[in-house]
């Protein structure tokens, strides 16, 4: 084979390789791997477990969240210490909710284990019920410990006084699929917590696909408030982003009260 022919073959091979790269349906490929899910329509929560094998736990799991918090037994006094600090945040409108990513630094301590705050997000109406009662919204603070175990703190949100910390977030919500930093000063998550920190605990799951279990849940008994207008502003973007309550099965719910 002469040099010219060899070079020509090499160029043809590279061209073919590039053509295959360009033609390969990467976006739809990704879609097959993680199918879209939603709260209404065909891909609503009743069908999550059927969308892909990766979401099977949504259907067959026995420790799913959220639940109706009822019949709690008295547990140890509060074993949760909040060590949050004001941090830079970025707001993500991810198509399922408004999520606020928190820069590393904030931790909570549950029974002597430190969990770092990763992000918080909102649901409307609330996902958990307390004695059958649904709140207007629910805040979820998602934490992870060094071993990768998740702990989520749930805070019920009722209609009431306007919430300045929420206003700061709502004013910076980007379009769907986009991320926005709150670039003024750092955000102090403690402004989104109620005064009293009594909570219900139980073993549950993520409330969105893949509904993975092994999540430590702590739902605070005291709600916070946002104004009716603030609820409406969220509902205009996400009219419903709450999974219905799941069976409690044999799980124990404990109430941990502040001393
Ligand atoms: Zn959530």
Briefly summarize what is shown:
The protein has 259 residues and is an alpha+beta fold. About 6% of the residues have low confidence.
Q: Which secondary structure elements does this structure contain, and how are they paired or packed?
A:
Layout: H1 3-23, H2 26-33, H3 48-51, H4 57-60, E1 68-69, E2 73-74, E3 80-83, E4 89-93, E5 98-102, E6 107-110, E7 113-123, E8 129-130, E9 133-134, E10 137-145, E11 150-159, H5 164-170, E12 179-181, E13 199-205, E14 213-220, E15 224-226, H6 228-237, E16 254-256
Parallel strand pairs: 1-8, 2-16, 11-14, 11-15
Antiparallel strand pairs: 3-6, 4-5, 4-12, 5-7, 6-7, 7-10, 8-9, 10-11, 13-14, 13-16
Q: Could you please describe the fold and organization of this structure?
A:
Strand 8 (129-130) and strand 9 (133-134) form a beta hairpin. The protein has 259 residues and is α+β, with helices and mostly antiparallel strands. The relative contact order is 0.21. The protein has two domains: 1-33; 48-256, Carbonic Anhydrase II, CATH 3.10.200. Helices cover 21% and strands 31% of the residues. The strands form two sheets. Strands 2, 3, 4, 5, 6, 7, 10, 11, 12, 13, 14, 15 and 16 form a 13-stranded mixed beta sheet that branches. It contains six helices and 16 strands. It has helices at 3-23, 26-33, 48-51, 57-60, 164-170, 228-237, and strands spanning 68-69, 73-74, 80-83, 89-93, 98-102, 107-110, 113-123, 129-130, 133-134, 137-145, 150-159, 179-181, 199-205, 213-220, 224-226, 254-256. The longest helix has 21 residues, at 3-23. Zinc ion (ZN) binds at residues 121, 123, 140, 207.
């Amino acid at each position: 084979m002469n040099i010219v022919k060899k070079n020509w073959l090499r160029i043809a091979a590279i061209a073919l390789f590039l053509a295959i790269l360009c033609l390969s349906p990467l976006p739809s490929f990704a879609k097959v791997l993680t199918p879209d899910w939603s709260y209404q329509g065909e891909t609503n929560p009743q069908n999550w477990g059927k969308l892909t094998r990766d979401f099977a736990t949504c259907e067959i799991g026995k420790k799913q969240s959220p639940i109706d918090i009822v019949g709690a037994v008295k547990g140890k006094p509060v074993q949760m210490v909040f060590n949050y600090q004001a941090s830079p945040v970025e707001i993500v409108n991810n198509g399922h909710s408004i999520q606020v990513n928190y820069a590393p630094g904030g931790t909570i301590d549950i029974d002597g284990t430190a969990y770092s705050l990763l992000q918080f997000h909102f649901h409307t109406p609330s996902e958990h019920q307390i004695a059958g009662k649904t709140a207007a919204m629910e805040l979820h603070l998602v934490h992870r410990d060094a071993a990768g175990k998740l702990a989520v703190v749930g805070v019920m949100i009722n209609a009431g006084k306007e919430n300045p910390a929420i206003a700061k977030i709502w004013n910076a919500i980007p379009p769907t699929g986009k991320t926005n930093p709150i670039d003024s000063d750092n955000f102090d998550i403690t402004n989104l917590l109620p005064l009293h920190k009594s909570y219900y605990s139980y073993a549950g799951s993520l409330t969105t696909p893949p509904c993975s279990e092994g999540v430590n849940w702590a739902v605070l008994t005291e709600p916070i408030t946002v104004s009716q207008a603030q609820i409406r502003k969220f509902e205009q973007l996400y009219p419903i982003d709450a999974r219905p309550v799941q069976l409690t099965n044999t799980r124990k719910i404990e109430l941990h009260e502040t001393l």
